[in-house]
Write a sequence for this structure.
């Protein structure tokens, strides 16, 4: 089985169809060379300073460097890419649900790093058994260097998103081999894992996940990104970070105000919902 592949000018609805049917899709070269170069350069020293993972899941030869919005100004171009936003909105935003940024990190698998254990990203919610077919999370990984079989391209099990537990082995996986600037998108329910890096150079992916806004974020955006940095970001990105109501009454501040007023005080602070 293969991962459906699209070119960068694909319509969002086509990507959504592929994602819903196969649980994973690749969009080739969605980020241009300039964006990849900038994000790579802005993250370089942060990645170099990051400790390796402490266990086999996070990877003892793997560095996970988070807080992209605080550390890489250009990462917004990936995190809030219009095509990705549109796809995520159609997958998670049905019935008017809000979605939010769940985590941001550069994942650098060093030479010799073994394949990560297969998993479903929505297991982060304490292994809660979401009903099959309820999508609560969409995960993405942008290739900052070419993803190859040898350097540990992400392994995905196509069509695993409508199953439960772990009825798969590495033999069932397909690697998201893709050129630099491409993105692999998969559902929180899709079985996948980082690949083994048998090459002699590191493999870096920019992992950005999104979740329903009534769930807890994996990476706490309020504390990972200083308020003064958050205040400089475009309003849709601020809202994506969680400076927004997650539902009718979720996430308000003090007198039922929308938290966006903390970052945009000049824009007024009208009560955002009626408390009866
Ligand atoms: O690095 C990768 O390719 C995948 C990592 C991953 O799936 C995870 O850490 O949840
Ligand atoms: Fe994962």
């Amino acid at each position: 089985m293969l991962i459906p592949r699209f070119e960068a000018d694909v319509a969002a609805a086509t990507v959504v169809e592929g994602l819903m049917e196969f649980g994973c899709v690749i969009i080739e070269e969605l980020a241009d060379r300039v964006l990849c170069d900038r994000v790579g350069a802005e993250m370089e020293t942060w990645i170099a300073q990051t400790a390796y993972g402490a266990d086999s899941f996070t990877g003892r030869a793997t560095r996970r460097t988070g807080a992209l919005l605080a550390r890489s100004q250009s990462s917004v171009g990936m995190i809030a890419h219009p095509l990705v936003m549109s796809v995520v909105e159609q997958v998670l935003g049905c019935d008017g649900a809000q979605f939010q940024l769940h985590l941001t990190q550069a994942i650098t698998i060093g030479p010799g790093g073994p394949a990560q254990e297969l998993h479903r990203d929505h297991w982060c919610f304490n292994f809660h058994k979401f009903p099959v077919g309820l999508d609560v999370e969409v995960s993405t990984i942008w290739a900052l260097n070419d993803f190859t079989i040898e350097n540990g391209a992400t392994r995905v099990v196509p069509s695993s998103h409508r199953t439960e537990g772990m009825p798969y082995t590495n033999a069932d996986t397909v690697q998201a081999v893709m050129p630099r600037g491409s993105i692999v998108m998969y559902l929180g329910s899709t079985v996948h894992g980082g690949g083994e890096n048998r090459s002699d150079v590191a493999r870096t992916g920019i992992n950005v996940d999104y979740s329903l806004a009534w769930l807890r974020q994996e990476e706490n955006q309020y504390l990972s990104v200083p308020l003064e940095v958050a205040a400089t970001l475009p309003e849709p990105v601020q809202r994506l970070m969680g400076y927004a109501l997650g539902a009718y009454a979720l996430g308000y501040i003090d007198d039922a105000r929308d938290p966006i007023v903390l970052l945009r005080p000049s824009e007024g602070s009208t009560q955002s919902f009626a408390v009866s």
Observations:
- The mean pLDDT is 95.
- The chain has nine helices and eleven strands.
- The two ends are 54 Å apart (CA to CA).
- Residues 245-276 form one domain.
